[in-house]
Amino acid sequence: MFRFNKKLNIWVKEDEVSPLLESQDKLFPLSEVINPAGSYIKVFGHQHPDLDSIASSIAVAYLLNSRGMNVTACRLGKYNAETLFAMKHFSVEADLQYIDTVSDSDKVILVDHNEEVQSVDGIEEAEIMEIVDHHKVGNINSSYPINIRNMVVGSTSTIVTIMMRECNVKPTKDIAGLLLAGIISDTLLF
Q: Which residues contact 52 (CB under 8 A, 6 or more apart)?
């Protein structure tokens, strides 16, 4: 069992025998509680991904990895021409892992979608940890409580940019370029 220590800003493991001890060997960062060593979280956008979906996946993975988590950006289809152009222009060499199914052992974060029909096969079985989206709220169900960040803005890349600012995480030049391209693309050049 864990409890959050506000003073130390970390999660503390409770000792089964004694009351909550805050000795150094009992302290665990939040990232180890929700994403223990040896596991990783998959983040991905909708099927037939567009630039906003890919940019958001890459940026969320970067953001969470910079905070100590083990997150892998994935894709649910082929890159479109616009995405390939932006990735080449901003020198993004990461070829995201292609996935077509998830299982009950997978932890996932959904970006740029929140409906089962737009997602990967098996999504109803996976542990959805978070949703970051700018579309209407859909029909994704979860057996666990999840964080949902849904805003009325032109793109998911906008939301991810806001999240990075809130966390004081500065994106690399290539990720910043992809996010800007995702914003421009999804807002139809404003």
A: 45, 112, 155, 156, 157, 182, 183, 185, 186
Cβ neighbors of 14 (< 8 A, separation 6 or more) are 1, 2, 3, 20
> Whole-prediction pTM value?
0.81
| Rounded Cα gap, residues 7 and 173, in angstroms | 34
Low-confidence ranges of the chain (pLDDT < 50): 16-29, 31
pLDDT, tens only, 34-63: 555 556 899 999 999 999 999 999 999 999
Distance in angstroms (rounded) separating the CA atoms of residues 48 and 120: 11
Distances 47 to 26, 84, 173, 179 between C-alpha atoms, Å:
42, 16, 27, 19
Burial of 94 (0-12, 13-18, 19+ CB in 10 A): middle
How far is residue 149's CA from residue 131's CA, in Å, rounded to a whole number? 6
